[in-house]
Each structure stands twice: as structure tokens, then as C-alpha cells.
């Protein structure tokens, strides 16, 4: 009969050891890695109990990496193409659970699409009853096929089910517990994060342990502090003192000496302790790290964990130190607000325009202020001074860190939403947020431990709506987070043991190598292709020959590396770093770097890239053995730009056009497939062939030069309108001056660049940057400095430049546009101010007491408007982020799922006397130049618009609604 007591004791030991390993590990890693650590622990335990196989884990991490794709067509366009390949792999490799999955999806497309579109598919019912039949890890595998952006949330649910919530709830840093783990031979290294400083907590710990005053030494390291630091260290070791060396990353050279001193230390005083603080740095000596206890000081990730951290660090009797009956409730409200403002940071620009380092000290000081004012009003039996508290919390303490006006407005909105007598209304209880899952309320009064117990029942995962944001806000954050996690998991997988299937890792890699080798064509005989077409050497043939040269280099490199890899796997030769990388990538379905360097840029895995490689091979072979394709597949060319330039050259030869004044335009046809087209057009798009880097840059420079207009003759424009010099004409003249500087700078740099490429002059740093950017499709810095802010690449920016040229030319030669394209102006604010000036002259308003407001019209296109308004202007080209515009109701509405940005109809900007402006039910909405919004220097905000809303403006303020003038 089994010994029940022994089994229970062993289980308790295992559970305690597992939890201790988790707690110790979490102390020394960053927040972004803690879920990864939990999952890695969890999956190792699951694998040891045979609940998850290596084959299942490989699928979850890598998906379908097979080179051969399933012949079964995807049944719906909304299913991601890679997701369908993953579905087919599930059905083939895991038939016990997923054999009928493809058929089920095809039969119930509407049900599967509804699940796919769900905000929380990880918890919603799955069609076909799969939620009831699948194991927890199998649910993750299924979710991977459809909604990568929800995997991060699903992982927390999975770990909670399999191990318990305590394994996704990192321990709160306790300085007393840290001290208990230290010895004179074990320093403590605090790895700092923005806004954190453990010095104050260490000083409190020293006081509690009797090491205050002269027994506590600290030094902030910097240049020239080496001798002082060594003297303090020697004194601390011999006299039993505590020594804190701050900012060690600023004096890494001293740390080498410190490492030696720690190694030589033999009999230190038993009470001596060494504490170090440092920013993350790769140059920190590994010897110190190995002997130290590592502690990362970083706010926890998640609302619940943040609240928990705040209350854990609170002094045990802190809640009893104020006699006002509402003190405890308001402390919880303040703690909730503190967690919210920190959580908004992870949503990038839609959370805060600028990321702020809100810290624990902000909360502590605000709590002291709260206690002071509540004690005072309780003594005089007066009301709570809400206005004062809102100002001190929202404008001084937290607002004191905020430098953006709209971010400050967001903080102020939280103050209005969270502070007021409504908190204590018993008939209409206050909710921070509530939905069908959970009701976020203020807990009843109690001791500190009771508040912690209440916090422990909060959901670990919460929607961005708790912070006032739209669910769309987390799509980008979670997608990026899970892809980073998968990358780390691949690195953590065993690279020398079993692959998870029936074959060993080496056999799997060798099989994949054989498969790839079987798909490699023979290198092309370029001399034969040239001879075949020697009577008709066209620019596009030159492109083909250069493309084949590049493709041959790739083929040969792939053949060489795979052949050597097979020999290394067989033990015939050694495995160098290149072959090791190829082996690693083949096993994990990634593209080896040595191949990537010789191929067009790609984000594909090995399987998708091989499909692309085979398709490229077919296009090259058909072209080399028959004729140029009727319809070219540009993605199948290494340098597709060269093919397009080649067609410009052909057209120039055919029609005797000057090459430096020729360009191209595009037109979308009605054909959906290349099979519908029987012959190439007479005038295709042609110019320079497959070229060297220098030829390509030169060709691009020529192309850009051909698009440059002549500098505007500003004197002629001024003379043309000399009888009617209006404020908007002054704006035009100033804009043309700036545009002329840009044109001249572009012309100068490109002309000099061409000379430098020809070897006529030297290549300086400016020209080198222009050359680099031209080759990589980026905007040169020397042009960027003279142009409006942009996030576009060179191609998109040139389209923008040409459109600006057209607007300036039409305005200068005809009249002011009926509808202005604000993004086409360098300083769009000046145009809007000019219209205020015009209105002031027209109606004799004082300029310093005039302003403007906006109204969104029902017009979608400028073509619908025939004349300018008498007062003000129409504006086009604005995009709404964080909400959408309801054209029928003419108001803001909630964004559609997964739609982040929508275009706004034409906006009417109307000047008005400031004292007459009385808007109701409108949201004061910032208009920014780009999606980067405003930066820390205040650049980016153009003007403020007014958008009508049927809901309270605070709803949209917390959602981060704004207008932008340029999409990326």
C-alpha cells in the first residue's frame, strides 16, 4: 500500500521548490520576460508528465514550417494564408484532435468568422465544440492558426489552468527578504528602470537593521571617482559597513577593479554588505553578476499586479494614520489611478504622446498630501477640497511630469472621472469600469491585508477599456510581444536532442537540407542566354542578365552551405559558425543569414521563402528560355526598380525622349489575372538594367532630378497678385521660399552625388548619407531637415512631394485652392492663422481675441465643392485615429474592430471671436502631422479641431482620439 504521507510530503517539497525557483527567477528578470519564464517552467513540467509533446510545442512556437504547402485551397479570404497552412498541419500531424478541422471550417465558415472577429477568442465558444474536447495546450495551438494577437492573453489563461495564478503573479520585491539572502560575499545588483531608485528603500532598510548614520555609506559613481570608491569599499569590508555604489554603468572601467577586489576578499566583516545600482548595460562584468543577487526594479506589468505592488509596499499601519472615514477609499482610488497611468505607457502613442516615468514616489507623496488635507477638513468638519486635490495630483505631482497639453488633459480627465463626492454615493455605486466579466469597484473599508485580498480576486488580464481605451489599442502591442516571445522560445529549445517527431534533430535538418537541395536549379549559363538574344540586347535583357548573376550567387551559396552542412552532420567536417546558423535556422523554419544576405528583403520563414524562391526560378527560366514575360512579377526580381527604369529607357529610345526628363505613372487595369493578357503593351515601363549599386543610385538620382520643378519665381507670383496681397498670399510666398530651398538642396545634392559616383569629386558624409538612403529607399536627412515631418519612405515621400508641387503651382498660377490640402504645406498653421487675419479685417475683430473652430462637412471629396467659403477654409486629407466618423449622424463613433485609422470627410475651419465661441457636445481634438503625434520637444501639433460627439468628451479623451495629416 502506498505511503500517502510520504507522497503528500514529496508533493509539498516539489511545489515549494518550484515556487521558490519562480520567485527567485522573477526577482532578476525584466517584466517583459516574466511570462516567458513562467511558460518555460510550465512547459517543462507538462513535458515531464507527458501532457505536452515536443512536436506540439514545436508547432506552437514555429507553426507550419514545411517547404511544401497544402494543395487544399483556403476556403475564405479572412483566414490568414499562413494560418490555413497551420490548420492543415494540425489536421495531418495531430489527427486525434484535429483531423476534421479543415472540413469543419469549410462547413461552418460563418461561425468560424464570428469567432475569429471576437474581441476575446481565447475565452469565446469555439465552433465545432472544440473548447470542450481539446486539452489546454491544444487550444493554444488552434488559436495560433487564427489570432496571433490573442496568444499573449491566452498564455496567461493556460498557465493559470495548469499551474495556478501564482505563477503569473510575480512576487513583490521585499527589501527585508533580499537582505536575508545576502552575505558579505554576495553583493546585490539593482538593475534600474526609468523612474526607479532603490536608494530610499535601502536607507529605510538600513535604519530598521541598525545600520543608519555612519554605518551606511553611498557614492554615485562618475569620472574620477575610482579612488574614492575603492577607499569606501576597503573601509566597509574592514568595519562592517553597508556600501551603495550608484550608477555603476557610468564607470564600467572601475567595475573591472571592483571584480578583482571581490575575488581577493577573504575575511570580510560579517556585517559588511555591498549594494550596486546600474542601468542595463552589456559591458557589466560577468564575474560580479555571477556572484551577485540580481534585482530588477521595474513596475509590474498589469493593473492587478501594479495595485498589488502598491499595497504590498505600503507601511502596515499607513491606512490607519488618517482618521477621516473616506481616507481608505481615496487611497485605493489613488492607487488605481497610479496603476492606470503606468499601464497606458505600453500602448505607445495612443496611450501617451510622450512616455513618462511615473514612479512609486509620485503615489507616496500624493498619499501624504491626501492624508494632510483630509485630517485638516475632518478637524474643521468641512467638505473634502476636491478642486485642491485634483490640482495637486493632476497638475503638480503626476501632471508635473507631463509636458504635453493633451497628455495633461488626459490626466485631468482621470481626475474628473475618479475624484468627487460621487465616489461615496450608495444609490449609484461608483465603477471604474464594469462589463460581463468583472465589476471594478472600490472595496469596502478594511485593513491593508483585506485590500490585498480584494486585489487578488481582480482579473489578471484586463481589456484596454478598463483604462478608457478601445480594444484595438492592444492589437499591435500583443502581436509584437508574442512574436518576441516565440523568438526567445526558439532560442531556448534544445538544439541537440530530439526534434519532437520520430526523427532526431540531425535527421530532421538533413532531411530538410535534402529537400531544399532537390529544389535548387542548376546555375544559369548566362553566356548562353546572352548569345541567344545577342541580336536584340534590350535594357530589360540587361536586367535579366544581372538578375541571373545575383540568382546564381544565391544558388551556389545555398548548394555549398547545404552540402557542407550534410557533411558536418555526418561528422566528416567541423561545424563552423556559418553552418551552425544554417543548421539552427533549418531546424526552426527560419531563413539562414548567409542566404538572406544574397536574396531580396523578406519577412517570410523558410517554407514561405522557398515557395517564393521556386516561383522566382520559374519566372527566370521562362524569361531566359522563351521571352520576356507579358506580365512581370516584380517580387520575383532582386532589384525590381531596375526593371521599371529599363522600360523608361526603352520608351526614351522608341520616342526619342530625353532620359533625364522622363518618368512613369501607373494605371490599375480591369484584369485580375495575368492569364487574361495576351501580349505586352507597346510602350512598357523601361530603363536602366540590372545594375551595380552605383548605377542604381545614379539612375534613382536621375529619376528624382527629372521630377524636380524649377524654383518658383517668387517675385513673379508677388507681381501677379500685387493688387491683392492677402494674408493667405503671404503664406504662399513664404511656403514657396521654403519649397525653393528644398528644391535647390535636392538639385545640388543629387548633382554632386552623380559627380561623386562618376569619380569627379570626393564623397563626403552628406553625399554618403544621400547615397545610402537612395539605395535603401529612405529619405536623406539633408532633405528631411527642409521638409515637413514625415514617416514615409523615399517613394511615398516623392509622391507627396509631387502632390505638393501641383498644389503650389496651381495656387501660384491660378488662385487659392477651394479646398486646401494641409499636409501639402510646410507650416500649415500659418495658413489657418491667415484666415483668422482675413476674418478680423473683414469684420473688424481684434486679432488677439479671435480664434477658430471646426465643423466636419458631409462632403467626402474636394470635387464636390465648387467655391471657397466667404469666411474660413475647407481642409482635406485628415485621418481619424482612435475613433471613426459617422457620416449619417455626423458624430464620432467607436472604431470598427481591427480598423485603426479612417479618413475624415472635408473639414470646415471657421474663424470666430473668442468670446462668442460656445461649443457644446464637442471634443477638442488635436491635429498632428504624423502618427508619431507630438514629440518631447513639442513638435508635431498643428492645430485643434472640434468634433461633434453624442457621448461625453472624456470617453474619447481616454481613448486617445486624434487627427493626423499623414498616414505612414
Automatic annotation (TrEMBL):
<dbReference type="GO" id="GO:0008569">
    <property type="term" value="F:minus-end-directed microtubule motor activity"/>
</dbReference>
<dbReference type="Pfam" id="PF18198">
    <property type="entry name" value="AAA_lid_11"/>
</dbReference>
<feature type="domain" description="Dynein heavy chain C-terminal">
    <location>
        <begin position="688"/>
        <end position="965"/>
    </location>
</feature>
<feature type="domain" description="Dynein heavy chain region D6 P-loop">
    <location>
        <begin position="184"/>
        <end position="296"/>
    </location>
</feature>
<dbReference type="Pfam" id="PF03028">
    <property type="entry name" value="Dynein_heavy"/>
</dbReference>
<dbReference type="GO" id="GO:0030286">
    <property type="term" value="C:dynein complex"/>
</dbReference>
<feature type="domain" description="Dynein heavy chain C-terminal">
    <location>
        <begin position="480"/>
        <end position="681"/>
    </location>
</feature>
<dbReference type="InterPro" id="IPR041658">
    <property type="entry name" value="AAA_lid_11"/>
</dbReference>
<protein>
    <recommendedName>
        <fullName>Dynein heavy chain</fullName>
    </recommendedName>
</protein>
<dbReference type="InterPro" id="IPR004273">
    <property type="entry name" value="Dynein_heavy_D6_P-loop"/>
</dbReference>
<dbReference type="InterPro" id="IPR042219">
    <property type="entry name" value="AAA_lid_11_sf"/>
</dbReference>
<dbReference type="Pfam" id="PF18199">
    <property type="entry name" value="Dynein_C"/>
</dbReference>
<dbReference type="GO" id="GO:0051959">
    <property type="term" value="F:dynein light intermediate chain binding"/>
</dbReference>
<dbReference type="InterPro" id="IPR041228">
    <property type="entry name" value="Dynein_C"/>
</dbReference>
<dbReference type="GO" id="GO:0007018">
    <property type="term" value="P:microtubule-based movement"/>
</dbReference>
<dbReference type="InterPro" id="IPR026983">
    <property type="entry name" value="DHC"/>
</dbReference>
<dbReference type="InterPro" id="IPR027417">
    <property type="entry name" value="P-loop_NTPase"/>
</dbReference>
<feature type="domain" description="Dynein heavy chain AAA lid">
    <location>
        <begin position="327"/>
        <end position="473"/>
    </location>
</feature>
<dbReference type="InterPro" id="IPR043160">
    <property type="entry name" value="Dynein_C_barrel"/>
</dbReference>
<dbReference type="GO" id="GO:0045505">
    <property type="term" value="F:dynein intermediate chain binding"/>
</dbReference>
Amino acid at each position: 500500500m502506498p505511503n500517502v504521507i510520504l507522497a503528500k510530503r514529496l508533493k509539498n517539497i516539489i511545489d515549494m521548490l518550484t515556487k521558490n525557483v519562480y520567485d527567485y527567477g522573477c526577482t532578476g528578470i525584466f517584466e517583459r520576460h516574466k511570462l516567458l519564464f513562467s511558460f518555460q517552467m510550465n512547459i517543462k513540467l507538462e513535458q515531464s508528465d507527458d501532457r505536452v509533446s515536443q512536436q506540439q510545442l514545436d508547432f506552437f512556437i514555429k507553426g507550419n514550417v514545411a517547404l511544401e504547402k497544402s494543395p487544399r485551397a483556403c476556403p475564405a479570404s479572412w483566414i490568414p494564408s499562413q494560418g490555413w497552412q497551420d490548420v492543415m498541419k494540425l489536421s495531418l500531424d495531430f489527427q486525434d484532435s484535429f483531423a476534421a478541422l479543415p472540413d469543419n471550417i469549410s462547413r461552418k465558415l460563418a461561425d468560424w468568422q464570428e469567432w475569429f472577429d471576437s474581441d476575446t477568442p481565447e475565452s469565446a465558444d469555439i465552433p465545432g465544440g472544440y473548447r470542450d474536447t481539446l486539452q489546454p495546450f491544444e487550444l493554444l495551438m488552434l488559436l495560433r492558426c487564427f489570432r496571433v494577437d490573442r496568444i499573449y492573453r491566452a498564455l496567461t489563461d493556460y498557465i493559470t489552468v495548469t499551474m495556478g495564478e501564482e505563477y503569473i503573479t510575480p512576487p513583490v520585491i521585499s527589501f527585508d527578504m533580499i537582505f536575508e539572502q545576502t552575505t558579505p560575499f554576495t553583493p546585490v545588483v539593482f538593475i534600474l528602470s526609468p523612474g526607479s531608485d532603490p536608494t530610499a528603500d535601502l536607507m529605510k532598510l538600513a535604519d530598521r537593521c541598525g545600520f543608519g548614520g555612519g554605518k551606511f555609506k553611498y557614492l554615485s559613481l562618475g569620472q574620477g571617482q575610482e579612488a574614492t570608491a575603492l577607499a569606501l569599499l576597503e573601509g566597509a569590508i574592514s568595519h562592517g559597513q553597508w556600501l551603495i555604489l550608484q550608477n555603476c554603468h557610468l564607470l564600467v572601467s572601475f567595475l573591472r577593479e571592483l571584480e578583482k577586489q571581490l575575488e581577493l576578499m577573504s575575511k570580510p566583516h560579517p556585517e559588511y554588505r555591498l549594494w550596486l545600482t546600474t542601468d542595463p548595460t552589456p559591458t557589466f562584468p560577468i564575474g560580479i553578476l555571477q556572484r551577485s543577487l540580481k534585482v530588477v526594479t521595474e513596475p509590474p506589468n498589469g493593473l492587478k499586479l501594479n495595485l498589488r505592488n502598491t499595497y504590498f509596499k505600503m507601511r502596515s499601519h499607513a491606512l490607519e494614520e488618517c482618521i477621516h472615514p473616506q481616507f481608505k477609499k481615496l487611497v485605493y482610488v489613488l492607487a488605481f489611478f497610479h496603476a492606470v497611468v503606468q499601464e497606458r505607457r505600453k500602448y505607445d502613442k495612443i496611450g501617451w504622446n510622450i512616455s513618462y516615468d511615473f514612479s512609486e514616489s509620485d503615489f507616496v507623496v500624493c498619499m501624504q498630501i491626501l492624508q494632510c488635507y483630509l485630517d485638516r477638513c475632518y478637524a474643521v468638519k468641512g467638505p473634502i477640497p476636491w478642486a485642491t486635490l485634483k490640482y495637486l495630483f493632476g497638475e503638480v505631482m503626476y501632471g508635473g511630469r507631463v509636458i504635453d497639453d493633451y497628455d495633461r488633459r488626459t490626466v485631468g480627465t482621470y481626475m474628473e472621472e475618479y475624484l468627487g463626492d460621487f465616489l461615496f454615493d450608495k444609490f449609484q455605486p461608483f465603477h471604474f469600469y464594469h462589463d460581463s466579466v468583472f465589476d471594478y469597484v472600490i472595496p469596502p473599508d478594511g485593513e491593508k491585508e483585506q485590500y490585498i485580498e480584494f486585489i487578488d480576486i481582480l482579473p489578471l488580464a484586463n481589456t484596454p477599456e478598463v483604462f478608457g481605451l478601445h480594444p484595438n489599442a492592444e492589437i499591435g502591442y500583443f502581436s509584437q510581444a508574442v512574436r518576441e516571445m516565440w523568438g526567445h522560445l526558439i532560442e531556448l529549445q534544445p538544439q541537440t536532442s530530439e526534434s519532437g517527431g520520430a526523427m532526431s534533430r540531425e535527421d530532421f535538418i538533413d532531411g530538410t537540407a535534402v529537400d531544399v537541395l532537390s529544389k535548387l536549379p542548376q546555375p544559369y549559363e548566362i553566356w548562353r542566354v546572352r548569345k541567344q538574344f545577342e541580336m536584340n540586347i534590350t535594357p530589360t535583357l540587361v536586367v535579366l542578365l544581372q538578375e541571373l548573376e545575383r540568382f546564381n550567387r544565391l544558388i551556389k551559396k545555398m548548394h555549398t552551405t547545404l552540402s557542407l552542412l550534410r557533411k558536418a552532420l555526418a561528422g566528416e567536417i567541423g561545424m563552423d559558425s556559418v553552418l551552425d546558423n544554417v543548421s539552427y535556422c533549418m531546424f526552426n523554419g527560419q531563413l539562414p543569414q548567409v542566404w538572406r544576405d544574397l536574396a531580396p528583403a523578406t519577412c517570410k520563414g523558410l517554407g514561405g521563402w522557398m515557395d517564393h524562391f521556386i516561383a522566382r526560378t520559374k519566372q527566370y527560366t521562362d524569361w531566359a528560355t522563351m521571352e520576356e514575360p507579358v506580365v512581370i512579377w516584380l517580387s520575383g526580381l532582386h532589384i525590381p526598380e531596375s526593371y521599371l527604369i529599363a522600360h523608361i529607357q526603352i520608351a526614351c529610345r522608341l520616342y526619342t525622349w530625353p532620359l533625364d526628363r522622363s518618368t512613369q505613372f501607373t494605371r490599375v487595369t480591369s484584369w485580375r489575372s495575368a492569364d487574361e493578357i495576351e501580349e505586352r503593351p507597346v510602350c512598357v515601363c523601361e530603363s536602366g538594367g540590372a545594375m551595380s549599386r552605383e548605377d542604381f543610385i545614379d539612375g534613382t538620382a536621375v529619376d528624382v532630378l527629372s521630377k524636380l520643378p524649377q524654383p518658383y519665381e517668387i517675385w513673379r507670383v508677388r507681381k501677379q497678385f500685387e493688387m491683392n496681397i492677402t494674408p493667405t498670399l503671404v503664406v504662399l510666398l513664404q511656403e514657396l521660399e521654403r519649397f525653393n530651398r528644398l528644391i535647390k538642396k535636392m538639385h545640388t545634392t543629387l548633382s554632386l552625388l552623380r559627380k561623386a559616383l562618376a569619380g569627379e569629386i570626393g564623397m563626403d558624409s552628406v553625399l554618403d548619407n544621400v547615397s545610402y538612403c537612395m539605395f535603401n529607399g529612405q529619405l536623406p536627412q539633408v532633405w528631411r531637415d527642409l521638409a515637413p515631418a514625415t514617416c514615409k519612405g523615399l517613394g511615398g515621400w516623392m509622391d507627396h512631394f509631387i502632390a505638393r508641387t501641383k498644389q503650389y503651382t496651381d495656387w501660384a498660377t491660378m488662385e487659392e485652392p477651394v479646398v486646401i490640402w494641409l499636409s501639402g504645406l510646410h507650416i500649415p498653421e500659418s495658413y489657418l492663422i491667415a484666415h483668422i487675419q482675413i476674418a478680423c479685417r473683414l469684420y473688424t475683430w481684434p486679432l488677439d481675441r479671435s480664434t477658430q473652430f471646426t465643423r466636419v462637412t458631409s462632403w467626402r471629396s474636394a470635387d464636390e465643392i465648387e467655391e471657397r467659403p466667404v469666411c474660413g477654409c475647407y481642409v482635406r486629407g485628415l485621418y481619424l485615429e482612435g475613433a471613426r466618423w459617422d457620416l449619417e449622424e455626423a458624430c464620432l463613433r467607436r472604431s470598427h474592430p481591427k480598423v485603426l485609422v479612417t479618413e475624415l470627410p472635408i473639414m470646415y475651419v471657421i474663424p470666430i471671436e473668442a468670446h462668442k465661441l460656445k461649443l457644446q457636445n464637442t471634443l477638442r481634438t488635436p491635429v498632428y502631422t504624423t502618427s508619431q503625434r507630438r514629440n518631447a520637444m513639442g513638435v508635431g501639433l498643428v492645430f485643434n479641431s472640434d468634433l461633434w460627439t453624442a457621448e461625453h468628451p472624456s470617453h474619447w479623451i481616454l481613448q486617445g482620439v486624434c487627427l493626423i495629416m499623414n498616414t505612414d
